[in-house]
Amino acid sequence: MGDGIASLPTISPESAKMLEILHVIQTRILEELGKSIGEGAIVLGQLLGYDDKAERLAVLDAGLAVRGVEFARELKGLTNEALEGFEAVQQQQQDGGSGGVDPELVKSVEEMDERIQLFIDKLEQHFQ
User: Fold this and answer.
1) Helix (H, G, I), strand (E, B) or coil at 100
2) Are residues 38 and 25 in contact, defined by beta-carbon separation less than 8 angstroms?
3) Rounded CA separation 75/12 (Å)
4) CB atoms closer than 10 angstroms to residue 122
5) Fewer CB atoms near the end CB (10 Å): N or C, the chain?
6) Taking Cα atoms as reference points, which of 6, 120, 10 lies closest to residue 68?
7) Contact 46/78 with Cβ under 8 angstroms?
8) What is the pTM of this model?
């Protein structure tokens, strides 16, 4: 991910800081994912623990870069399923049911869903 920056003949202080941030993010996502996690649901749950959108999406991007397109497709399926579930709950609420879905949760999942789709689209265009 930071290979382009690291290969520059001279690295400005800003580039060095960016490279350092990228390494921290990569390390953090590896810690988040663990060595043997095969379930995207755990990862999505951890990502939802980040209050800051930029940080959450940066960790997601790093995770996608590390785990690849198959993992991205797994996460995409899970975010689609979650969004459909949210929609069903909202429909039940409109029909007189109780409960509801936190709008911030829906927004966070939508943002991750869009970012995952961008990652998949980008890779598929690259290999066409």
Assistant:
1) coil
2) no
3) 36
4) 13
5) C
6) 120
7) no
8) 0.66
Cβ atoms of residues 78 and 116 within 8 Å: no
pLDDT in tens, 66-83: 999 999 999 999 899 889
* Rounded Cα distance, 125 and 128, in Å: 5
Distances 26 to 20, 49, 83, 119 between C-alpha atoms, Å: 10, 17, 27, 16
Burial call 1-13: b when 16+ CB within 10 Å, e when fewer: eeeebeeeeeeee
Angle at 36 between CA 23 and CA 39, to 5 degrees: 95
Among 33, 116, 21, 20, smallest CA distance to 76 is for: 116
